[in-house]
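Need tokens for this chain, all 341 residues.
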Amino acid sequence: MATTQLSLSATREKLKAIFMGVGVPEQDAANTADSLLDAELSGVESHGLMRLKPYVDRIVQKNINPDPDIQMEIHDAIIKVDGKNGLGQVVTTKTVDVCIDLARKHGVAIAAIGHSNHFGTAGFYTTRMAREGCIGFVASAASPTMAPFGGMDLLLGTNPFSVSFPGKEQIFCSDIATSAVAKGKIRVYEQKGLSIPTGWALDAEGNDTTDPTAAIQGILLPMGAHKGYALAMVVDALCGMLSGSKLSCESVSMFQADQPADTAHFVAAVDIAHFLPLEEFQLRTQAWFDRLHNSTTRPGFSRILIPGELEAEKRSGAGDSLNVLEKTAAVLETYYQTYGQ
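Here are the structure tokens for all 341 residues:
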């Protein structure tokens, strides 16, 4: 499928105007735009601009609250958050900032978030914590797209989680789905007319498939077989159980739902300076990174990367240029003309 180049700064302003046009306050609109663009620039287009349409449609249909009165019950280093059906980016960014402040006071802070929505990439938030001298952990329950290991019923989500921590020169950021692949990535393959690799998904009858449309209508496979299945359950426990919100099997797809998603998240921040000087941690971590970088590569590989390094290189090399699918650019322009003027 054909692509087109957009100005990054102009696209950010259009996104911000669109969200403000449907009632999102200016700073929240900016944070949501930054989340979508960070994913796009990182090469994670499944969580980038293609999410604009369902976000805005759900706001217009009153299935997302554009200006929620987010409630936080804070007990020392523990926070229980009621997102009041706000945009996931809005609810999670505000929670992360509170966790960073509380971690500086207590050494650690943990938040269970209920009644939220899709929040983009988990790494967007853990990187934010790492930049503030924390080890960050973020997870989210997702709508049911994956069956338990050996099963057929859609009872688990892709249930992603991310961990980030800072070196002196770069940040480690692992952001992964507990399924073999994020469902949004399969949607990108579908848009581009590409086949997916065997092992990502099954069709509705439980057969291996390379057809992205059949995969979207079928069953995602867990990463690492039973290991991904177990991790998906862990994420549901941390998100849905602790917050009192919905488990994956009780949730609904953001692309199809005509009701609030009631998505649950989990955030944890560990303030490094409570354990040892931040500078010491960063220097030792960077030396560890360098040792990994300089280790022997196996045949077929030219370099060894630290998790998050490739995405960081893509972001830093983008300048003011953004390459997106023509279909995605057309939706952006249509929504800007409809809501952003």
